[in-house]
Fold:
Amino acid sequence: MKTKDMHIEVGKMVNIGILDLQGGVEEHFNAINKIKDANAIRIKKKEQLHEIQGLVIPGGESTTLNKLIKIYGFVDPIIKFSKEKPIWGTCAGLIILSRKYLNLIDIEVQRNAFGRQSSSFIEKDYIPKISTNKIEMVFIRAPVITKIGSEVNILKKIEGKIVAAETENILVTSFHPELTKLLDVHKYFVKKVKKGLKRV
Structure:
């Protein structure tokens, strides 16, 4: 195990899965593949989860995504996966990971908190734990986090509303980093995945 950890530290390739049922799959796939030591894999079947060290649940339509996760038998495998390996949910993915659905992070969520798609917007600001650069945050019919449990750390608020948070194995963002040219949030998740491997 120590040998494995050492290889991770010096730059072992990690496989990051993008749940490919619905939503912004390609954008996350392309972003991950631009990061050194990271390889993106489209996850269409639950059996593929053993091939990856981290999972991204992309934005899309949360009700539809929730139905597809059930139809394709992903519920229990994703829950099991989360006990050892990190998961990142963006927008609809955040909702799926919340208390109401998979309950993998102790948060409650308000949908479309900034309005419908016509009032989508972009904010640029710092998220100190993620990057020293300003992060471009694209909000599209974005949810916000209204309540958090004691183990949840707030990463960012916009207009007093929580738009990014994490626990040891779960990262959630209301916004869409995959729709920008910046890779800071994706790089942060890859680091989280590598850190998780060291605990296994």
About this structure: The longest helix spans residues 184-199. Residues 1-10 have pLDDT under 50 and may be disordered. Residues 113 and 143 are 5 Å apart (CA to CA).
